[in-house]
Each structure stands twice: as C-alpha cells, then as structure tokens.
Amino acid sequence: MLQLLLLDMDHTLCDTEKADAVGRRYLCRSFEEVVSLNSGEAEALSGHFMEILYHRPSAAEWQKKEGEQEGSYRGRLLQLCLSKKLGLKISSEICIQLVSDLMAKRIEAFDFFPGVPELLAELRQSYRTVVLTNGPLYSQEPKVLKVGMQDHVDRVVLAGAHPWSKPDPRIFKKVLDDEGCGPSEALHVGDSLGSDIAGAIASGIPSVWINPKGKSFPRELTPDYILALVTELPRVLKGLGG
Predict the structure, then answer these.
(1) Considering the chain, what is the average pLDDT of its residues?
(2) By CB atoms within 10 Å of each CB, which of 47, 107, 175, 176 scores lowest?
(3) Using alpha carbons only, how large is the chain's radius of gyration in Å?
(4) Domain 4-15+112-239: what homologous superfamily?
(5) What is the predicted pLDDT for the residue at 241?
(6) N-to-C CA span, the chain
(7) Which residues of the chain fall below pLDDT 50?
(8) Which of the 8 DSSP states describes residue 162?
(9) Domain boundaries in the chain?
(10) pLDDT of residue 194
(11) What residue ranges in 102-206 does DSSP mark as E strands?
C-alpha cells in the first residue's frame, strides 16, 4: 500500500526554468553595463556561464578547490569564462558580486508552479510527503526558504547535506529507512530521467516522470507513469487506489 510520496523540487514542484531565465537576463544586462559587452556578446556569455554553472567541465581548473567557499568558487568560474571566451581580465571581487547578485535574482523569481501548494495540501491528507532534491546547499537552502517548502510537506531532504545524491540508490534507501517504509510503499516523482527515474528504478521504487515537453526515453529508463504536469498526480494516485 502506498504510504510515501518522494517529490523532486526543481522543474517538478517549482518553476526553476523561469527563475533561471530571470537570472540570465540580469547577468546579460550586467555584462553590458559592468563589462561593456555588446548585447550579442552579453547574451552568448550569459548562456555559456549558466551552462558552466550547472554542468562543470571536467578539467581541473573548473573544479572546486579544497576549502574554497561556494560563492568564491562560482565567482572564479565566471572569471574563467570571461577570460577564456573573451580574453577579459575581471577582478575576482567583481565576479563574486555579479554571481551573488545573479543568485539573488534567481531566488527572488523562484516559486511553485501554479496549483502546486494546493496539490501538496491535498496529498498530505493521505500520504507522507518528502521532498528529495539534488544540488549544493548554497543553492538549495535559499530555494526551500523562498517557497516555505517545510510548511507544505512533511520533510525536506537536501542531498547536498549527505554523501550521496540522486540517482545513487543510497540516498533513496536513507530516506526510506528514515520513513520506515519499503520501496513498494513509495512513489518517486521527478522530471529528470538521469537522476529521478534512474534512481527510482535502481532503488526498486515506482516512478512518475514529469515530462511537459513530451521527450522520448530509452527503454532502460522507462518510468511507471508519465505526466505533463505534477498537478496531474492525483489521477495516477486514483488509479493506484489512493
């Protein structure tokens, strides 16, 4: 019998893409004003940096150094981008401030998708609800606070506070053990095939893939259910007898 709903946060419950777009527009304007780039250069560089921010290159110079603070590290990433893409030498202080302002703008725009607070209130009447989200604490803690996530679900688990993150089955097992239920008594809901669906499959947990753009998927990562929006989840639960 279903007891526990594991819910991803970014791109599942919350419109992270919209928040990222706001941050990118801010960074683009900053490049024009602070670094004196033209609009085309600023747009290209802001997109490149956002990609670097989420998908770090494997070369050693892009990796976080031991003891390096997250804000300083992200400022250094921006400094590297400016240097390598345009040959610009910008001080670390300016880069750190730009990234700090970028993060603030993103958090300011971060919010639930429409209807999600009402959905979560409904789900809590019948199930334990736990948000399980990847990402460094530097990024995720402000997001959780911005939407008051702790008031909408029974528990929030930030993978950044643990040795493992999705899709590692150990983070799923940790949550299941803490909640006192088995894999068959849980349902994991998320937008990422590589993190959410792969992790749920490896953990023996049934999964719901939030797929608003109708993307295809490989056979080895076949979710149990596919929805365009997380607010359609009650339809799946009704089919499960919930």
Answers:
(1) 95
(2) 47
(3) 19
(4) HAD superfamily/HAD-like (3.40.50.1000)
(5) 67
(6) 9
(7) none
(8) S
(9) 4-15+112-239, 17-109
(10) 97
(11) 128-133, 155-158, 186-190
Condensed to tens digits (0 to 9), the pLDDT of residues 46-96 reads 999 999 988 888 999 999 999 999 999 999 999 999 999 999 999 999 999
Tokens 């009447």, residue located: 125
Identify which of 235, 230, 226, 215 has the alpha carbon closest to the alpha carbon of residue 113. 230
pLDDT of residue 242: 56
Q: How far apart are CA 162 and CA 127, in angstroms?
A: 24
Structure tokens at 227: 């929805």
Region for 147 from its dihedrals, namely left if φ exceeds 0, alpha if ψ lies in -120 to 50, beta otherwise: alpha
129 three-state secondary structure:
strand
* The pair of three-digit structure tokens given for residue 237, joined into one six-digit string: 């639960």
Give me the count of residues in the chain: 242
Q: In the prediction, which pLDDT does 35 show? A: 86
Token readout for 146 is 């911005």
Neighbours of 241 (CB within 10 A): 7
Which residue matches tokens 């928040």?
19
